[in-house]
Here is the input.
Amino acid sequence: MNISYNLLKDLIDFDLSPDETAKALTRVGLAVEGVHTVGGDFVLDIDLTSNRPDCLSHLGVARELSISLDRELKLRPVEAEMPMPPVLAGDVVRVDASDLCHRFTARIIRGVKVGPSPQWLVERLESIGERSINNVADITNYVMHELGQPMHSFDLDKLSGNRIVVRRAADGEKITTLDEVERELDSSMLMICDAEKPVAVAGVMGGIESGISDETTNVLLEVAYFDRASIRATSRNLGLATEASYRFERGVDIDNLKRASDRAVELICELAGGEKGEFIDIYPTHQTATIVVSNDISASVKRLTGLNVDEVECDRILTRLGIARQPDSNEYKSPSWRHDIAIEEDLVEEVARHFGYENIESELPPAYGAGEYLPSEDRIRSVRSALSALGFSEAMTYSFIDVEHDDKFDLVTVQDSNSGFVTLKDAVIEGAVRMRPTMLPGLLDAVRLNLNYQRRNLKLFEIGKAFIGGGNGQLPSEPRLLTIALTGSEVFASTVADGRGQDLFDAKAAFETVASTLGISMPEFRSSAAKHLTAGRAADVYVDGVLAGSVGRLHDSIASNYKLKRDVFVGELLLDVLLSASPESVVYKPLPRFPGVSRDVTFAVDRNFQYSSLAAAATTDDTLFDGSKLVGTFERDGERTITIRLNYRSDDRTLTDNEVEAVHNTVLANIQHSLGLSPKA
Amino acid sequence: MDTNTEQLKPLIADEIAALSSINVDGLSLDECEAKRREVADTRIRLLGKKSELANLKKSIGAITAEDRAAFAQNVQSLEREITEAIESAESSLDRKLADLKNEAERVDVTLPGRRIAPGSHHPITVLRQRIEDIFVSMGYTIEDDREIETDYYNFDALNIPENHPARESQDTFYTTDGFALRSQTSTVQIRAMERRGVPIRILAPGKVFRRDTPDMTHTPMFHQLEGLCVDKGITMAHLKGTVTEWLKRLFGPDTVTRFRPSYFPFTEPSAEFDFSCFKCNGTGEFEGDRCRPCKGSGWIELGGSGMVHPNVLRACGVDPTVYSGFAFGFGLERMTAMMYNIDDIRHMFENDVRFLEQFR
Here is the structure.
């Protein structure tokens, strides 16, 4: 909001420079964003908080200055005047909707000459960013900025029946507002009407027909107070927000109407001629002042802010703000212009901000217990570090994705029947109304973006929440996921030489590294039919027998949607399954004292043979058997072989060839028995 | 001196002279290896089983008893002389050989190490972890909770009235089931107080959502960090002290803070807080130019804070006449952008590796 330094001086005497004024206002919570020179004036741009509509005027701002200046505002007392008696007034103004119009005043001014405003008024309006229209319109605008009360002037002669009826619109009634837009009304909207039709949208904008024109000679000046919620609803429903509606919906000062009206009338008579006529004041709904009880305001200020402000100073600040302490009581009466004073803490804030936040001490609270991280934070941090050491960069993608990804991915997050998607009512990024049930689409977007920038070798991971289920009044579940995507070759830090091309086993290695970092058992990988993965290069991932996710080569149909021409490997795990798996405890085994013996054995297998079955079959109860490990696989011309190493060892002697041979034959017999495989000659 | 040893001596003198005349300087690897083989041959010839010396030793039985001691001494001394000469030649050749072999393996030590390119932590993660570490050391417990919330937790319990602009759907995302994507991490305050009761000291970092179209300074999803401390006797002085302390730990001991009155529905009194610019130390000028992070003001506006509103305490079953507390919150993206001079916060969610890999 723009505040004119010169206009402020009309309302209070002070000798602060514009910059000092800005500082003084910022200090009490009226944040001045900038001070600009406009003509011979300075304009203070104030970023006002939404609780202070009373400061949407120079009067309100001057009042805030009056505390530190300890000086009265330059306001003349409002002239006492008997309004037109109700029996007569009813012929001019009738309020049918007193629930929405709490007070309505009208002043008749006759013999007005509409014309351009004098230079000083044009300049004042310019400095606060308003354009001059004509003297009458300018005056109502000016007084709104000065005193905070929006008002509207009608051409009395254009009002049918020369009268005003304040009522709700009839459904389907229409009005063309001053901005030359015809608007259709409904019965929730409060209208200022003449004998026949709406002539203004109450508190929002006047109608074009009844407005002031160059021909106007008789004016009806409306200064009223409308229900805040009603104005807000009307303004929103019509899509019409104005300076007036902005103030009305936040709340103006119902006891300030006569002052504002008198001020405008005075200026109209002075600048546009005319003769002040009848005054009508219909005040059906009196506002009861809020009473706030504070038994010891000084103690309360101390309790919440630590500030030592004695009672005299508290009362001085509050009194200047219009928050009057009732004589000999602990009750404070909120002024008619403040809609935000309701409890003692509000009084404390008023005192504290004027006494000065800068005077609040800075001290740490007394010592307390030990701090704690989130239960699995240390483990998630180690997962991040491990993946980062493997060359994965941590990505963060939006939690909302396009609905086009629906049904393209097998969702690890869908674990039971409660599996509906979570959908937003609308999006700010086109199409992105689906709360992600998987993080793969987001990560694939990132892959696509990087490929566009010629980064062909990529490793990305993300840790975050997915959203699934809910409905029927239930909140959705928010499982945490760990998702990876990789493509291209291994990359070296300081050379451009491409390393080995990455494949499924690099993706698996990432998940194995995560398991190893967490100290849990190695995940088990079983062939997967996940629809977003390529058959034969896809695995479901199990942790301690629990399905945790999948990993594999991205399916060609999805890859082509993303215009990915290279192999992309992706994996997604339920982080919570990983974190809930118990870490394997460390059991020390004494170091072997005798050398072991190993035998490498090669089997000819077909292409669909799974190593995991060989690893499982290669065993015996004999304690001399010391496990097996893969040596390698070899494939050519459709022939495939797997070589494994079988280890034998005793804790108390060096094994003889015969002993080894005996156990080895048992293991081979077991393999033969389970799989029908014999070692290749 | 017996005749046999006397006869041997001149023969050997030549061999010893030859051994000690070996000069390794300037030898190539091949020459050096040839020389080394020669010395090995010499050792066999002079000290081997068939050497003259060996024969001499065998002849000791033929020496008379009175001459035997002198004979043995002579043979020994001769053997020592030969051995020393051979070993000296061997070791100088071996040293030279090792040098030459190592020289052949010489590499350019300035070539880069064979290091797999490391990945990176997201800048938001980096900053979040640093701030979490500071608060844990100050006795705070880290908390997080749901990202999709009911209106009760997102608004009502936070004393955000029905008609508050924040509640309108132009600011808040709603699901078709009528739930809100949390628009501030303050929701965690409520859930944590309900769960843990008071006294409480928590720090809640997390994702929040607002209906902003992405631009250089806005994204519809971002991260907030929210602190809450409720106990008997907590005042705004403790708020000031706490915020100042962690900013000092993050930006250095000279950091100062500034609190300005403001308005938030969930605090009363409320304050916005600024801190002296970490780049220009509050001068507004850096290396003669207008300082960028603080736009020349010397201050960086960071977040909102205040004393927890009594309605919020009551909503969590806490008696505001017995307990008081402070809360503060701020956005991580804005702070990260400031610290690293990132001109467009949309980068944070685009995941361009050229951006990501700059952070560790």
